[in-house]
Amino acid sequence: MARELSPGLKILWVWTLGTAAVLVTSVVRTRVRDMENLMNAEQQQQQQQHNTATDTETLLVDTSPQSSELIREEKP
């Protein structure tokens, strides 16, 4: 048994579903943009740490009586 809806009720349903779709799309876009910004910030921070680590090198001296060599260690 088919139930017929009035035109006004159909318009109200279309309006409601359209508004919900717009709101959900807006929230998803905002979340994706925030996630991209967070990932970009983390990548920049890692690049800065990597650049800092490669700029500074640590030299360790072996003070044992058997060896008088310098040991070079690079930080990751």
Helix content: 55-70%
Strand order of the largest sheet: 1-2
What is the makeup of the main sheet? Answer: 2 strands, antiparallel
Assembly type of the chains comes to single chain
Strand percentage, roughly? 5-15%
- Shape label: rod-shaped
SS-based structural class?
A: mainly alpha
* Rg calculated over all Cα atoms: 31 Å
What is the first-to-last residue Cα distance?
Answer: 72 Å
Keywords: Membrane, Transmembrane, Transmembrane helix
Please describe what this structure looks like.
Residues 40-76 are annotated as: Disordered. Residues 50-69 have a biased composition (Polar residues). Keywords: Membrane, Transmembrane, Transmembrane helix. The chain crosses the membrane at residues 12-30. The chain has 76 residues and is mainly alpha-helical. It has one domain (7-73). 64% of the residues lie in helices and 11% in strands. It has 1 helix and 2 strands, in the order H-E-E. The protein has one helix spanning 7-55; strands spanning 58-61, 70-73. It has a two-stranded antiparallel ribbon with strand order 1-2. The longest helix is centred in the middle third of the chain and has 49 residues, at 7-55. The termini are far apart. The model has no long low-confidence stretch (mean pLDDT 80).
Descriptors for this entry?
two-stranded antiparallel sheet, mainly alpha, 76 residues, 2 strands
State the gist of this model.
The chain is mainly alpha-helical and 76 residues long. Helix content is 64%, strand content 11%.
